[in-house]
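Continuing the series of single-chain predictions for the mutant panel. This is the parent chain; the variants come on the following pages.
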Amino acid sequence: MLQKFLILFKSGYPNFWKKNNNIFGKIIIIFLLPLSFLYLIISKVIKKNKKKVGIPVICVGNINAGGSGKTPFVIYLTNLLKKKINIHIVTRGYLGKLNGPIKVDKNKHTFKDVGDEALILSQSATTWVSKNKYEGALMATLDGADLIILDDGLQNNSLYQDLKIMIVDGGFGFGNELILPAGPLRESINSGLKKSDVLILFNKDENNIKEKIKKKIPVFHINSEINKYEKVKNKKIIGFSGIGRPEKFLDSLRKKKLNIIKFFPFPDHYNFSKEKINYLINYAKKNNSILVSTLKDEQRIDAKQRKKILFLNLELKLKEKDFFINFLKKKKIV
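Parent structure:
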């Protein structure tokens, strides 16, 4: 339902979800507020008894409807810890047709089977797709996992989570701070903070997030930037992306002072047709430019067409890395 709503907005997030709105945006919000109230009531009614699987579970989630940096942080956390213990990732496989629980096989499955995020996550660790998070975690446990990282489970009520990490993008914050669909939030800020043990703040805090939470939970800071972009230095580039907030990818290109001729934004998890990609390839060729996108977008593009596109990766740097590891040890997670 959310994906059908977002498809109406070519840049992924509606403008009225942002912090500051014009008169037109405020009018839309007023019309959507009753639906937000209904969404909030339904979400509070749905309660389940959370079950344990016998091994630690770290939940990485957000209260925003995507675009916070959740998937990159799951990968970062996995790489940080997997040298010492056997980590399995459990994700619901958003927009994938398989209900699971099923172990992701990147040689067998496509994004239509398990979703684009599951394919990326499976490159870092054994990944399970399961619409039922508890069943997925149980399969991971039986398969020999020592620790489970739950991708996007902050609102999940079926699986007990030993540590809950909330991800927030410093550039967007909590937007207009309203509940879906009038705003980007899946639940209220206070509700999200009460259930979370730690907050990971991506990049510069442009929305005074630390002030908003008022020391309710520990905050760690992480910076993200594209790496291995030497091939596009001093070259003209055409960029495109269909992620939660495609402007984040555009900003990362600008930070490297790259020569961006044109940027095409698409909705999150956008299913690129061969015709659409051919148009972008030809557009770049006509402008004597290099076509660039993200690794997440790569999963939704035809394998043959990928050869004509440069996919850039994000590098994450946790400022308080040692303190974060000690925090996990105190929580008896590692």
